[in-house]
Design goal:
Layout (H helix, E strand, L loop, with lengths): L1 H20 L7 H15 L12 H16 L13 E4 L2 E15 L14 E2 H11 L3 E6 L2 E2 L12 H15 L4 E7 L8 H8 L4 E5 L1 H5 L8 E4 L3 E5 L3 E2 L1 H4 L3 E7 L2 H17 L24 E5 L2 E11 L9 E2 H11 L3 E6 L5 E2 L6 E2 L2 H11 L4 E7 L7 H10 L10 E6 L5 H4 L10 E5 L2 E5 L6 H4 L3 E8 L11 H13 L4 E3 L1
Parallel strand pairs: 2-3, 2-12, 4-6, 5-10, 6-7, 13-14, 15-18, 18-19
Antiparallel strand pairs: 1-2, 2-11, 4-8, 8-9, 9-11, 12-13, 13-22, 15-20, 16-17, 19-23, 20-21, 21-22
């Protein structure tokens, strides 16, 4: 009824303008036809029942256009509260009692002291999601090598093979729907696992073709979303080495619909772009939009503890819908919002665009760190991996940062390289034995991401960051939060025998 009234009002306004402005008949010819049809219907009582008339087609098209352009935005679903979130003044508050756990993969043979912090393993976290899912499981991934047979048989592949077996079993039995969005396979990464899952009808798989869509890049995200309620986000690829031979870090979040539904929108963007005929929209539909970002985070209760301002960031910018903070902007904001310290643990650190025909300088994170250290007198520590694939040029950029220490009073930048040791047998495993972490922690914020820190990962590669800021200013020294736990992980690694001065 409301639509009819609004449509009639629009017609009357048009007619009124027609009279007042003395427009020509051609200007509103369809509206004139409409009036003629109505007059004829009054004269011929049977005419109103002749609903199919060729002359009605332009009238119908006009009404459809009016509905789409003028009236449809009135029914925008994004104006409503997001699932399991309520407005408290101008800020959103999550109504769920969310549970969050740090998740790690500690490579075989990497041993910390007995009193070091220990957390849930990646294998256990994935198993929890597989076994507890009831309706749907969505996985965003780079590549798939869960089985030893994919490229290198090793006794430590058993955890990956067990995850693959569960995916196959649950998918074939239709215990729940499994959708996988992955980077398009290549000759070096053929993704035999997902080929098998597709062939056995255990999962629906789509591949995002970054070279076609952006001219380069990959889907580098590592995300699981279960039942729109639980999720894993972190550095671990769908690779058996990520469970037993590579050091990884992420989070398992459960009973948290407010966040799971929000990060699922990023997966849905991947799923859409995985269609063969897909194109990046000039403006993403509102379905993909978010209310939670760096300017308006949602307040979440984690582990019965209140006041954690939270949001997801994403890259690359063309994949971000309205409201979503770009990953680079989120990282810079976390660095510049620190008051005491910034601790960073990533595999690669380059202020460059390195995966392009021409290497380009890309200084944004580097500039933020220098600003934090020099202007804000924040202590900065970087723990960067050193392994067989590290580029020699990385050292020069790291030394450039560390050389600022003591250049002025209070400037403190320290850098160490982390080496995962390998015995002769482990050394044979291709692309293993590396600290693959991608996180940052400050005195007030935890950032857990899926991207390495070079420019390419923020310009044309897909990744996600989870930002959790503790807004409680009255913490006691012995309070345990996700921020303090992540700090303990960094300090454990920094002070371990595996960390070496630059």
């Amino acid at each position: 009824m409301k639509l009819q009234i609004k449509s009639e009002n629009l017609r009357l306004k048009r007619d009124d303008l027609n009279v007042k402005n003395d427009l020509s008949d051609d200007d509103f010819e369809p509206w004139a036809q409409l009036n003629t049809l109505r007059a004829d219907a009054d004269q011929d009582p049977w005419r109103k029942y002749r609903w199919f008339n060729p002359s009605c087609i332009p009238i119908t098209l006009i009404f459809i256009l009016i509905f789409v352009i003028v009236l449809l935005p009135l029914f925008d679903p994004i104006t409503e509260n997001p699932p399991h979130a309520v407005l408290n003044g101008t800020n959103y508050v999550c109504t769920d009692k969310c549970r969050i756990q740090l998740v790690e993969s500690i490579p075989e043979g990497l041993n910390f002291s007995d009193n070091s912090p220990k957390f849930l393993s990646t294998y256990d976290a994935w198993s929890i999601l597989l076994n507890s899912t009831k309706n749907s499981l969505d996985i965003g991934s780079f590549y798939w090598t869960l089985r030893g047979a994919d490229f290198y048989n090793h006794t430590s592949a058993w955890q990956g093979e067990d995850i693959f077996k569960k995916l196959m079993t649950y998918g074939r039995r239709k215990k729940y729907q499994i959708r996988i969005a992955q980077s398009i396979p290549t000759a070096n990464e053929p993704n035999f696992d997902t080929q098998i899952l597709t062939k056995r009808k255990a999962a629906d798989v789509r591949s995002v073709n970054f070279p076609r869509l952006l001219g380069g890049g990959v889907l580098h995200t590592k995300l699981w979303v279960s039942d729109g309620q639980n999720f894993y986000l972190g550095s671990a690829n769908m690779d058996w080495r990520s469970l037993t031979q590579v050091k990884e870090l992420g989070v398992l979040v459960t009973n948290c619909t407010c966040l799971a539904k929000d990060v699922a929108k990023i997966f849905e963007a991947y799923w859409f772009l995985g269609r063969n005929d897909s194109e990046i929209p000039p403006r993403w539909p509102e379905f993909y939009s978010t209310k939670f970002n760096v300017k308006s985070p949602i307040s979440v209760q984690f582990n019965d503890d209140l006041n954690f301002n939270t949001f997801f960031s994403s890259s690359p910018p063309p994949f971000s819908a309205t409201g979503r903070t770009n990953d680079l902007d989120a990282i810079v904001n976390v660095i510049l919002s620190a008051e005491k310290f910034v601790h960073i643990a990533v595999m690669d650190y380059y202020p460059l665009i390195i995966y392009s025909p021409k290497i380009r300088y890309w200084p944004f994170i580097d500039d933020a760190l220098r600003t934090a250290a020099i202007e804000n007198k924040v202590s900065v520590k970087l723990l960067i991996s050193l392994w067989g694939s590290s580029r020699p040029s990385e050292d020069y950029f790291l030394k450039s940062l560390s050389s600022l220490t003591s250049s002025f009073k209070g400037v403190d930048i320290e850098i160490r390289r982390f080496i995962v040791p390998a015995d002769p047998d482990q050394a044979k495993i291709p692309f293993g034995r590396v600290n693959h972490n991608k996180y940052m922690v400050t005195d007030n914020t935890a950032y857990i991401g899926t991207s390495n820190w070079s420019g390419d990962y923020f310009t044309d590669t897909a990744g996600i960051g989870l930002i959790i800021k503790d807004s409680n200013n009255d913490r006691k020294d012995n309070d345990t939060t996700i921020v303090t736990q992540l700090t303990s992980v960094f300090e454990r690694d920094w002070n371990s025998p595996y960390a070496f001065e630059l």
